[in-house]
Amino acid sequence: MSDNKDFVKEITNIDEDFAQWYTDIVRKAELADYTDTKGCIAIRPYGYAIWENIQNYADKKFKETGVQNTYFPVLIPESLLEKEKDHVEGFAPEVAWVTEAGGEKLEEKLCIRPTSETIITTMYAKWLNSWRDLPFVYNQWCSVLRWEKETRPFLRSREFLWQEGHTIHETEKEARERTLQMLNIYKDVAENFLAIPVITGLKTETEKFAGADETYTIEAMTYDGKALQSGTSHYFGQNFTKPFDVKFQNRDGKLEYAYQTSWGISTRLIGAIIMAHGDNRGLKLPPRVAPIQVEVIPIAQHKEGVEEKVSEIYERLKTKFRVEADFRKQVSPGVKFNDCEMRGIPLRLEMGPRDIENGECVLVRRDTSEKISVKLENLEETIEKLLEEIQNNMFEMCKKRMEEKTTEAHTLDEFQEKMNSNQGFIKAMWCGSAECEAIIKELTAAKSRCMPFVQEKIDNKCVCCGKPADKYVIWGRQY
Amino acid sequence: MSDNKDFVKEITNIDEDFAQWYTDIVRKAELADYTDTKGCIAIRPYGYAIWENIQNYADKKFKETGVQNTYFPVLIPESLLEKEKDHVEGFAPEVAWVTEAGGEKLEEKLCIRPTSETIITTMYAKWLNSWRDLPFVYNQWCSVLRWEKETRPFLRSREFLWQEGHTIHETEKEARERTLQMLNIYKDVAENFLAIPVITGLKTETEKFAGADETYTIEAMTYDGKALQSGTSHYFGQNFTKPFDVKFQNRDGKLEYAYQTSWGISTRLIGAIIMAHGDNRGLKLPPRVAPIQVEVIPIAQHKEGVEEKVSEIYERLKTKFRVEADFRKQVSPGVKFNDCEMRGIPLRLEMGPRDIENGECVLVRRDTSEKISVKLENLEETIEKLLEEIQNNMFEMCKKRMEEKTTEAHTLDEFQEKMNSNQGFIKAMWCGSAECEAIIKELTAAKSRCMPFVQEKIDNKCVCCGKPADKYVIWGRQY
Asked: pTM to 2 decimals?
């Protein structure tokens, strides 16, 4: 931790002003900072290291399913963006336009990609010939730009980092399977890597991606009970391949348009980690994604042999875990403990003269604050076990909260009352009309999150209009 | 290899039209393709896989020296770009400007980064306080945009992928050391990973980076004897830290401006690989960077047991090497051999009924066309040895060519004559004046590449003006 000029001295209480607590964490844990480019952040090394860990985990999972990485231009000509009607309506209002370049006004303006369906589908049309060429299962890790009015670091930044996968297939069936396959990888990333339980399901027509037939989502819950859309996977059918003329000779020798999907996760996941796990002491990172899993802190560092012995332990652990040692002389162990907690490091290792004498050290868990004395000969084994326990415990804590903050509603009054008092997910039946969604949003500020894959029959009538309803929807306020 | 509609049927002869041969390779080996965004390419999976291998190798080397990855905004406000005089003069003419966003005209236009010194230095000013915070050794992997008039895939694309490292230090000495440390990593990437020998040295004032005190470079030579600047590392002194007000309290308690460096390599290296190693049969990849090291091809695939046995070998090799098997039924082994050569795969493994009977297979080297029969029990060992030999041989072949195509000149006439007949590097003395550089360029189309670290005394007078000269310069025509 550097001693920054504009260091946030205190963080806001998480229960008093969650939004302010959030930005305090972002800055005090040195994850990111505001820049002179309004609405865009700089991701600092500690924040970026979290993103790199997410990338490595997800990229490996992608590649196991045959995904290949690529790179397509950041600039998209206006005429391409306009080719698919719903898509341009959805994205045109929030794009940034390049109108001058190389000292001249451009003949056709170019937008900075808000997403790359249009430019990639254009290339697919050039490359596709026969069914034998299919599928194309391409992905790119890049940044995109969406000119949001209100921004929040990681959650809603004008520029953000993401991956966007774009695939085309020979059959509808194969494309639909790919859509769900990628959603399942996202669920795996969220739950098994980030320790964030998610609800998976289908978005309503109102909430789906501009140009998609169907959008599937993983929805997480924040500390304050709001919903956070954390990854989406879209099935396009032939919505883009028709206007972009992506056709192939099929097995019967006939020309056919390909079936398409796209899917993405972004640096928003860093926001999800902060909002799902953090507390009044700062960030709290699940061990699997944590850039530093163990922080080694000497006690009474000035005493003979302490620095030497602690260095030795640090070097030993480095071969097995992601470890950092804090040997700063100008600050007390107390300050180091606070820094370590603020940065959410899962385990703190303290070691002073008495520990050295006894051939042991003390481990302190970030999630429970529990202190454990460990004999040095058992150190690696204990750390490994504890990191596993912390990972699981953090998932269970989030899951418990999500369960506690998920309730049912059978009437609009009940919906309003519960959303206002509890703020969380509400399960309620829906008739399928966009009007009812609009009324609910107007009255409760909650939107439909998704129609979960696992459908329950809460009731047989719509929570809003009372008409017969067989769709069970999860609702929530959103970040 | 897909059967593309606009597949290049033949490649141009390398000795007849090298530039056309180059673009043929780019397209036929499916490394990249032109897009609807003029001057920008799409990097296809095979090309991107090469880039990923370069990234992984370089990123690991960077991190071993303490480099941390970060991400800064793609958009830079005009006022920031203008803060350092030489820098804005150098880059402003070739930037792309965003003037509209979110449906409105912007109050201040934003350029897409051509390089990020300005936006990063601005943030360093916010984050730096004491000498204890230093150094900042940050890097980002991203894309940049430079609106070139003439473009060529990988070599000079309007958008390209690169890494840009930006560091600030407590002392000039430390910053200078970092500049050279990174240049040495680039030399290592080029020589030991890409098998491309490079000349390292200092750029002249005319050729240095806009805003730098000193620019160091690695210069490669192409098949046709041209120079390819393949990586640069800059020492800035306080040129940026003063106008951007990046100061810190030094060890004496006084305020001091930090000392700065930046350094970058890019997807241009893919162009370097093509141009240094390729031949009339296509791309030729050094084994360490090759996405596929061994291509497994069945012979008489329809015969009983062949597919099964070849699959078995493929599965066996997959655990140890990057391997692909070509089981396409609609094309002959001959076509597969050609595809394999075109894509530059270092080793081809052929296996037919007779090989199976004899418990062996045939390995064919891409670099020498040598065929080697190998007993299956020695397969892994032999492949490992051969890949190593190919890597070394490819480096030696390039080195030999560079030596052959490097000559000395003592007069302008000799310089012109040798450059026109031989096109390669010319070693010549230089008095240090920009005028002489300009005259040489005018007469020979060659620019100064660098003043090599290892200085030789070819002569005691400038090759151009004849005045006393103690600087030994390497000159060459460039891509």
From this structure: 0.97
